[in-house]
Specification:
With 57 residues, the protein is mainly alpha-helical. The protein has one domain. 28% of the residues lie in helices and 0% in strands. It is built from one helix and no strands. The longest helix has 16 residues. It starts with 11 loop residues before the first helix and ends in a 30-residue tail after the last helix. It catalyses: N(6)-[(R)-dihydrolipoyl]-L-lysyl-[protein] + succinyl-CoA = N(6)-[(R)-S(8)-succinyldihydrolipoyl]-L-lysyl-[protein] + CoA. Its cofactor is (R)-lipoate. Keywords: Acyltransferase, Lipoyl, Transferase, Tricarboxylic acid cycle. It comes from Pseudomonas syringae pv. maculicola. Its EC number is 2.3.1.61.
Length: 57
């Protein structure tokens, strides 16, 4: 999972832009190791699939 660093200092629009950038890089196979390390927690939304609990891999 890519890590959006310093999100506490970002506006909602900046967070959305960061997520979109990571999505494009992931689709293009261009995420770096540095962008995927150092996270402390992960936010997911498995509810769109009808699940109540899930674990990202």
């Amino acid at each position: 999972m890519p890590v959006l660093r310093n999100a506490e200092h970002m506006s909602l629009a900046e967070i959305e832009g960061g997520i979109a950038t990571f999505g494009k890089k992931a689709r293009d196979g261009k995420l770096s190791i540095d962008e995927m390390t150092g996270g402390t927690f992960t936010i997911t939304n498995g509810g769109t699939f009808g699940s109540m609990m899930s674990t990202p891999i």
